[in-house]
Amino acid sequence: MNTFQLECFLAVANTLSFARASEQMNISQPAITHQIKTLEEELNTKLFKRSTRFVELTQEGISFINDAKNIIAISLQAKMKFNSDKEEAINSLSIGCSNSIQLNSLKQVLEKLNKEIINFHPKITIQNRGQLFYLLENGSIDLFFDHYDDNKLKDNIKYKELYEEKLVCIGKDDNPLFNKELLSINDIKKEKMIFLDPMYLTSKMAKFQFKLIENKSSLDCQFCSSFEICSSLVEAGLGISFVPETFFDNSKNIIKRDLSDSIKLSYGIFYRKNADDQLIKKIIKCFI
């Protein structure tokens, strides 16, 4: 396996076209096909479903995308170490987030770390919770930020709480329901609701959603794949939704209200036991 094969794989994965990938890589289409074929033979799996009309990633292909990106990034960083005129080492840190809202909240943390760590090179990846745990366990990322789940952590994973927050109800600013400062489950039961797909939630948040969904018509419920999409649908007037308080975007035409029946959420850092303790302490200090 070599980086050129991986670059060809990512080009096809991004365009879902061998023809467009060949243009992007500036090589012939048969050459792209050959690189993918030899890569599949080496991995002993099919990365793409292809016919004369379409190209699709297989499940194995989808799961290989992050591996390919990581291998290319590591290879490039290794080359840059020896091409640099400076003697100082690069201090890299791979950080995972489950959404872009978390990434926005990390800007000040990254700024502080940049002042404290010489040659600081953060690498950021956004994936769903399940994928982040997988990446952390196999060493592809050093740590990630998310809400704590009730499920027991694996022995090699540690968690440090940064703060506790609550789940809040959000709605469009012209919704008369939000004239009240505190809402109950009874207040909102007749509203159309926008939920996050349970696969992206902690079990605690999923249980709360199931409680709200009970006895509601499917016509009054919508599901989406991120808190950002939830907020956009709320702003469009399609219903109300529920987000962790720190994920509330007050720049939009939506407002938040506390729920009398809300739940408390623990937010913090997940990291491996062999992680650099001093670095973790610096990150935690940035949140204080």
CATH architecture of the largest domain: 3-Layer(aba) Sandwich
**Biggest sheet character:** 10 strands, mixed
Residue share in helix: 40-55%
Contiguous uncertain segments of 5+ residues: none
Structural class: alpha/beta
Number of domains: 3
Cα end-to-end separation: 45 Å
Question: Which sequence of SSEs, written as H and E, runs from N to C?
Answer: HHHEEHEHHEHEEEHEHEHEEEH
- The overall average pLDDT, rounded, is 87
* Tally of contiguous helical segments: 11
- Tell me the total number of β-strands: 12
Please compute the radius of gyration using only Cα atoms.
23 Å
Strand-residue proportion: 15-25%
The gross shape turns out to be globular
The third-level CATH topology of the largest domain is: D-Maltodextrin-Binding Protein, domain 2
Task: Give the full name of the CATH homologous superfamily of the largest domain.
Answer: Periplasmic binding protein-like II
Which class of the largest domain in CATH terms?
Alpha Beta
Your description of this structure?
By secondary structure, this protein is α/β, with parallel strands linked by helices. It has 3 domains: 3-79, Orthogonal Bundle (Arc Repressor Mutant, subunit A); 86-162 and 267-287, 3-Layer(aba) Sandwich (D-Maltodextrin-Binding Protein, domain 2), CATH 3.40.190.10; 163-266, 3-Layer(aba) Sandwich (D-Maltodextrin-Binding Protein, domain 2), CATH 3.40.190.10. It has 11 helices and 12 strands. The chain has helices spanning 3-15, 18-25, 29-43, 59-83, 100-105, 107-116, 129-137, 185-188, 203-213, 227-235, 277-287, and strands spanning 48-50, 55-57, 91-97, 120-126, 143-147, 157-172, 182-183, 193-196, 221-224, 240-244, 254-259, 264-272. Helix 1 (3-15) packs across helix 2, helix 1 packs across helix 4 (59-83) and helix 2 (18-25) crosses helix 3 (29-43). The protein is globular, with a radius of gyration of 23 Å. The two termini are 45 Å apart.
